[in-house]
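Side project, low priority. Logging it here so it doesn't get lost.
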Amino acid sequence: MAIINRMAELHDEITAWRRSYHANPELMYDVHDTAGDVAEKLKAFGCDEVVTGIGRTGVVGVIRGSQAGGRVVGLRADMDALPIREETGLPYASKNDGKMHACGHDGHTAMLLGAAQYLAETRNFAGTAIVIFQPAEEGGAGGEAMVKDGLMERFGIEEVYGLHNMPGLDVGKFAICEGPIMASTDEFTITIKGRGSHAAMPHQGVDPIVAGAQLVNAFQTIPSRNVHPLDGLVVSVTQFHAGNTYNVIPETAMINGTIRSLNNETRKFAEQRLRSMIDLVTQMAGASFELDFRAGYPVTVNDGAATRKAIEVAKQVAGDSGVDPQVRATLGGEDFAYMLNARPGAYIFMGNGDTAGLHHPAYDFNDEAIPHGTSYWAKLVETLMPAS
């Protein structure tokens, strides 16, 4: 493996930044302290330009290489935490009750800062590196907000790259694939309206629970019987609420859930099929319904050429055997998809070791992974925009 010596030297300092962010998590767009600290550090590193307020609370740093011209490459990290109560017991555990860096964005931010410090010091590349610190990845579409705020055009970004830690993958290893790597994330809420009755006299009412139960079962046939078995699709019902006592059939039932897909056509079909099933089942039951369907993040699609570049760079850090170039896509979602829809690029996973899973109250970013991530970022810039 080829960890950059300077990154090894900066390891303790970057770890301290990471743990400070971990202890002071902020949610969604309300990342003012984190964003302020990021901007101060970028200025102290000597970035050529530091811009705040992109996509409400996003921060962008511009680092020009030692040679003018060349390409403009964007590197993105996310800053926000999750509304989870931490259960790690660590000395740097969250000070903000009910908020926690349970997805490793504290590590992502710290690693990109470390790479920015190195790139500003060395400038051993021909072109411009744009370091992007994004708010509101966890459900707030901060990536979309930054793109709509002119991120790509304002800074002339031609390619954009992202990185995420992966529990279960050994520290020092990377995993990536061409094409879809993460799923779209649509959500639905169905309110079934029946007619309440005594539980002993169900014939006098219209039971929304029975209709809802039929829908839960019917939805499972969308991925299992309505689409190709190799298409990435899940329809998951995650909440079912109805009634409040044992002897009354309620007036209404509410069902919440999500549709995840790796294919845009499959995504559209699944929504259409879900809508038709709701209509038919409630008609048969004599009930009515209201559907709130919320289109979420799009499919995260890695550009082929950019993915091959990312693989080459990851191998410089981890060696040939340390990079899985055909990792199986995940049905988790990621709003870096908006940036990849705006510009070609690639999203790569980096090993976090044998830790608790993402979004788990016992999760913690593995600080041993820091030199691998910072080296990847630095080598990516130097490889894509080599100085003569």
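Brief comment: The first helix runs from residue 5 to 23.
Revisit when time allows.
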